[in-house]
Amino acid sequence: MGFEQLAALKAHLNQGESSKTIAPRTTSSSVAVTREISKPAKPPRTSADAAARAVTTLQRHFPHAFPRSPAPKIPLKVGILKDVLAQAVSLRLSERDVRNGLKAWCRGQRYWTCLVEGNARVNLNGAITGVVTAAEAQYGACQENTRLARRREQIAKSRHGRPR
Q: Which of 4, 49, 121, 127 is most buried when burial is the number of CB atoms within 10 A of its CB?
């Protein structure tokens, strides 16, 4: 690209046009070429991203019920979904995002290990609304054992050279 062509390109860019085309470039055979400048496409929004954003919003608005890591999770009130859905509009969350966020929060080692018989359950404000029963504690332990067994199986497969 010659000096004249660079100067023309700089003048075109400095004009502040909202057009997304580059000035024609001439070659030795006088052929005009125009290229479109395109922005890279945004990656599609996944439900996992939306759930993570919903959890972050819940943590910001209800820190006593949704503590940030490394603090241990606290057993939530049975039926807390209704309470959160009642406030979803003010939180600017869709029903689907609230449901997926609560699923993500309540599925995992940190939540299952907090389900110990006799532990207090809390509402959105952190007030005690009940206790964890023996059946709920057993369910949490069973879920954690299932997760550990799956993880051990994945590790064993990867050691034997099998695809995951």
A: 121
pLDDT tens string, the chain, 164 residues long: the values are 677 777 887 887 787 654 555 555 555 555 555 566 666 666 666 778 889 999 999 999 999 999 998 899 999 999 999 999 999 999 999 999 999 999 999 988 899 989 999 999 999 999 999 999 999 999 999 999 998 999 999 999 988 865 54
Q: Is the pTM of this model over 0.90?
A: no
* Rounded to 5°, angle at Cα 112 from 149 and 97: 105
Query: What residue spans of the chain are helical by DSSP H?
Result: 3-14, 47-61, 80-86, 88-91, 95-106, 109-114, 134-159
Residue with tokens 């010659």: 2
Residue type, 128: I
